[in-house]
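R.M. (postdoc): so does anyone remember the format we settled on? I'll just put the structure tokens first.
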């Protein structure tokens, strides 16, 4: 009897693997008595898992290769402060729009801010490839423009801009909020720091 049960158990394991596409697996002894009835969900697990493996879902290397631009896409609003060359500081109110295209390989930036005494509108068109960022920028109220280069990873974009003005810009994303920091040299506007949330 023990030997028959062991044989039946081995048959169960083999039939579950061979007949994974069926919903029910039944095993009978030579005498026709049913040993057990198996409900299997292997077909609903194995096939999606194989498909996911084929597509690279959950693959760390593919996740690392994904563009960080996609997480920034959308409309944002918030505020912060601007610091001028004189040392004076004022409150800012800002609205921003980020548009991602090309499967996350391109990012358009439009940030508009206003303080009691000034306003600025920053536009930028950026391209992402293997962690590197290149593109152009312009400040529309002054008519200034130039080139931008830098790096990006998950949740962070760091740029160095040159041209009519030079400086650095950093965007740090955390969930539904982000912080934008800009520092410039050779202009009346020395620094901007704003915190934005999704609209």
């Amino acid at each position: 009897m023990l030997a028959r049960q062991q044989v039946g158990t081995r048959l169960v394991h083999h039939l579950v693997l061979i007949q994974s596409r069926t919903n029910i697996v039944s095993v009978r002894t030579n005498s026709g008595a049913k040993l057990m009835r198996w409900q299997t969900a292997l077909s609903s697990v194995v096939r999606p898992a194989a498909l996911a493996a084929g597509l690279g879902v959950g693959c760390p290397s593919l996740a690392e290769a994904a563009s960080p631009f996609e997480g920034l896409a959308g409309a944002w609003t918030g505020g912060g402060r601007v610091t001028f060359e004189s040392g004076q500081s004022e409150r800012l109110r800002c609205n921003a729009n980020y548009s991602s295209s090309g499967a996350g390989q391109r990012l358009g930036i439009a940030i508009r801010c206003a303080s009691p005494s000034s306003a600025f509108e920053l536009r930028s068109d950026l391209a992402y490839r293997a962690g590197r960022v290149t593109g152009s920028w312009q400040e529309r109220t002054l008519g200034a423009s130039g080139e931008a280069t830098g790096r990006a990873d998950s949740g962070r974009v760091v740029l160095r801009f040159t041209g009519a003005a030079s400086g650095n810009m950093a965007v740090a994303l955390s969930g539904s909020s982000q912080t934008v920091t800009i520092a410039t040299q050779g202009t009346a506007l020395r620094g901007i720091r704003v915190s934005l949330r999704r609209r």
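R.M.: ...and that's the designed sequence above, right after the tokens. Also worth knowing: Residues 1-64 have pLDDT under 50 and may be disordered. DSSP finds three helices and twelve strands in the chain.
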